[in-house]
Hints:
Blueprint: H1 2-19, E1 32-34, H2 38-41, E2 50-51, E3 58-63, E4 70-78, E5 86-92, E6 97-100, E7 107-116, E8 128-132, E9 137-140, E10 145-147, E11 153-157, E12 165-172, E13 177-185, E14 191-194, E15 201-211, E16 216-219, E17 223-227
Parallel strand pairs: 8-16, 10-17
Antiparallel strand pairs: 1-3, 2-3, 3-6, 4-5, 4-7, 7-8, 9-11, 11-14, 12-13, 12-15, 15-16, 15-17
The structure holds calcium ion (2 copies).
One calcium ion binds near residues 28 and 120.
Amino acid sequence: MRRAAILTALALLVFLGSCGENIDTDPPQSPLVLPHTMETDTLAVESGTDAVPECNCILIEWIRNTEEDLKEYEIFRSGHDTSGFVSLTIVAGTESTYLNRDLQFIRYYYYMVARDQLGNTSNPSGIADYRLTSKAIPKTPAKWETLYADSIGFEWTWDGGLEGVFLTRLFSLDEDSTVWMGWTNAYERPLRCYSPPVSAGDYKWRVDYIAVGQNEGSESIWTPFCRR
Ligand SMILES: [Ca+2]
Ligand SMILES: [Ca+2]
């Protein structure tokens, strides 16, 4: 009996020794998923879970973990906030965003876990939710239209309801930054807004629909134009 105990102890020592410093039983910290907020969605440089201009997609964003043995993140998704979550994807530990493509106009809920090289898995993150709406369609300025007025009149159409607001973004291609943003109520017709005088140069614009306080909206495609 005693001999067996000693052998077991020896075997355990050999096992521990062979793994050396690679043994790491600490799971990573829970990832910090950045939720959609009205505040971060209306900055010149947005952050957090959000719509994107290019497609009917939701961008999930998080703060990267700092553990040296971090391997990957696994993202889970459901159409309900408390049940039905299934694994959506696994991304490398070096990533801090994931674009969930080809979505319907329903509310999606996401959470994620972090996993290290030995398979230790973190506790789940908090849940971020978002619902896409249809996109506004930019009308004027049209694609690569040349304008000579100081102030730019933006106009678009939208097949949604009268609730919520639009945020027009004017981006200078020369300065590589957002130079102006303007608000329009969704009930206004026509849907439009006017910028203050802008200098000559190349620009692009888009319009974001924001269902205030509901983690819900869309971003139109970017439309480039010239002011001469
Ligand atoms: Ca670890
Ligand atoms: Ca946004």
